[in-house]
Amino acid sequence: MLLGYARAGTAAHTLESQIDALTDAGVEPARIYSDVFAAITRMQRRPGFTALLDYARPGDITVVAGIDRLGRSAPEVMATARDLTERQIGLRSLREGLDTDDPAGAMIVGVLASLAELDEELRPDRAPTVSSRRNRGPSVGRPRALGDDQIAVAERMRAEGQPMPTIAAALGVSRATLYRTLAERRSA
User: Fold this and answer.
1) Which intervals of the chain are annotated as region Disordered (predicted)?
2) Of 121, 138, 160, which residue constitutes the final position of a domain?
């Protein structure tokens, strides 16, 4: 049996357009389950998807407009794919042309399920974040070519109308380095 799932999150992913795509793919309107992103909090599971899982039996096929409709994040999509696989429920994604009845589609869903298991093993609380890596000490890599005092001199010379090649020669850096450093300073 074909079971549809639609999840609205943005204007680009309206429930109506997804439901139309699912019915065009042969899913009966009575067998389409849906969730609205705005109504779901992080603490609350997806009631529409939970109802689909309660109704589904091994051998049924869940049809979605796009694989991204299975979750709000990549780990959630992967975990959902793994859950469907464990329950022996097929998956068909219309946009990507993914179908677990096809050997290649089954392989892709298997990879997604494996990635979900790996993601659980490498939970975020164990992996260092970018901010924690920054707080560990000095940065790794080549030091900046121009210090703050030299950048101030370059900006003053530029304001006085000096050409960039002259400023670069005076500071002992290439024009590319000077252009890049001043552009970074302006954007910051």
Assistant:
1) 123-146
2) 121
What is the reported pTM? 0.57
Q: What is the mean pLDDT of residues 104-116?
A: 75
pLDDT of residue 123: 60
Angstrom distances, CA of residue 58 to CA of 2, 51, 55, 62, 68: 12, 15, 10, 11, 23
pLDDT at 4: 94
**Nearest-angstrom CA–CA distance, 60 and 65:** 17
Range of the domain at 175: 148-187
Please provide the size of the chain in residues.
Answer: 188
Residues contacting 159, CB < 8 A, separation 6+: none
Same domain, 100 and 175: no
Look up residue 47 and give its two tokens. Answer: 């009631």
How many domains does the structure of the chain reveal? 2
178 vs 105, more confident: 178
Candidates 132, 127, 120, 59; CA nearest to 90 is 59
Spatial distance between the Cα atoms of 74 and 77, rounded to a whole number of angstroms: 5
